[in-house]
Structure formats: C-alpha cells, structure tokens
Amino acid sequence: MDPVCRRLVLIDCDNMLDTILETVSEFAPATMDISVITGCDDLLTTHGECLRNRFGREGLQLTFVKGECTDQAVLQSAGIAECDSVVIGNLQQCSRGAIDDHDATIVATILLIKWIREQAMTDISSQDTPSLHIVGLSGYKDTQLLADVLALSSSVPISVDMLNLDFLMSGWIVQVAAEPEVTLVFRELLASSAGSELYVRKGHLYVQGPNDTAYFREVQYAARRLGQTAIGFIQCESQAVLIGVSADLQVSIHDRVVVMAEA
C-alpha cells in the first residue's frame, strides 16, 4: 500500500486556502506538514496566524513561504524536495490570455520541481526514492499531455494530474441531470469522511428477476436493503465496467455488481 501523504505544498491556492485546509483536516492523517507558497501579505500576517492556530489544534502544521512558484529558492524553502504531494491552484474567472499564462506557469513550475527533485536525489544515498504526486488546475486538456511528458522523462518518480474544471463540472452536471441517482455517488466519493469502500459482488445477490435478469433500478433496491449503494456493474461477456448507468439497463445474474458500502 502506498504511504499516506504527510507533507503537502500548496501553490497559488490563496483564494481557496480555507476550504482546502478544512478538507485536509477532515480527510488527511492525524498530523501533516503543509507549506503554503503565497504572495498575499494577509496570509503572511494576521489571517495566516489565525489559520495556523485554528488548524494547528487539528494536527496541521502550517508554514507560509512568501514568493513565486517559479522561484527555485522559494520552492526549496517550502520543502519541495521532500514533500509527498503538491497542489497548484488559482484558476477562477480567467480570461483566455490569463489561462494561457496560467497553464504556461504550471508547465514551468513542474519542470522546475522535476529538476529540484532530481538534484535532491543525487545527494541522497538511500535507495528508497520518495515519489511525488502533483495535482493542478488547468485551462486546457492538452496541458496534461505536457505534464505527462515531463513526468515520464524524470529520473525520480513523479505523477501529475491536471484537472480541467470546465470539463469535469460539465460532465458531472450532465450526468446528474440525466441520472439523479448518481448524485449520491458523487456525494459519497467527494464529500464524505465517514469512509466508504468499493466492492465487486456476484450478481445473484442482487438480481432476482425472471430469466436471471433485472433492471438496474431493481439491483439498486436490492443493494439498499443490504445497506449498500449500487453504482454500476461489470458485464460478464465483454468485461466492460459500467458506472452511473441508466436505471432501465438490464443486469444479468452472471454480471458482477459494483457497490459502495461503509468501511
């Protein structure tokens, strides 16, 4: 099992910092070191001190580093060479030109992070090279391709996920509009800290209709009676994984049902 993230660097997340910290305090390990790279004077003084005191009681150790993410010294001061994860934010109500600049800055930042990590690893005698995961908000889907090229060319383990919010939000909205039942899935996956696990179960536990088939709505009902939430199924012949499917889709007793249950 991969180690949990215990050291996080936040870059350009000033406008959503409070929300991020709330989420981290709810979902993250009991103790966690977080470095925030910012140019906001308020975060470096009064508001930052309030956040440090508030979330310090919940096990988050906050450090604020003033500067730009494209500055090598700033990244090193924030602990980029040792951290487990990096979040690159700030993409709200941007003009097309601003999006161009934003994505260009992301690529430049990833390139600099890659260089710092590679240099740091040459100074470490241990064979255990720590991995790094970078998550960022991008304006263009092609930015992911550039990020992947940089990650694959790295001599140290780096993975990158660029999230295009317009693409994700439009997909979520359309799915919820077409199938309101999928709302529960999104809420469980994105907004619940109680703990849920995904299971793949044999179809005969949920399919009780004639001819060994049932509508997916009947499968969902059978799952609810067991304290579970059916979110899709795996077809026995094609092995296709269908998630968030129509309630009118037929499920065979030979298919496998994907359910969500409390951990």
Structural class: alpha/beta
What is the radius of gyration? 22 Å
- The number of helical elements comes to 9
Assign the CATH class of the largest domain: Alpha Beta
Beta-strand content: 15-25%
Strand order, biggest sheet? 3-2-1-4-5-6
Output mean pLDDT. 81
Distance between the termini: 17 Å
Number of domains: 2
N-to-C order of helices and strands: EHEHHEHEHEHEHHEEHEEEE
Q: How would a crystallographer describe the biggest sheet?
A: 6 strands, parallel
- CATH names the topology of the largest domain as Rossmann fold
| CATH H-level superfamily title of the largest domain | NAD(P)-binding Rossmann-like Domain
CATH architectural category of the largest domain: 3-Layer(aba) Sandwich
Low-confidence runs: none
Q: What is the 3D shape?
A: elongated
What is the share of helical residues?
25-40%
Tally the beta strands.
Answer: 12
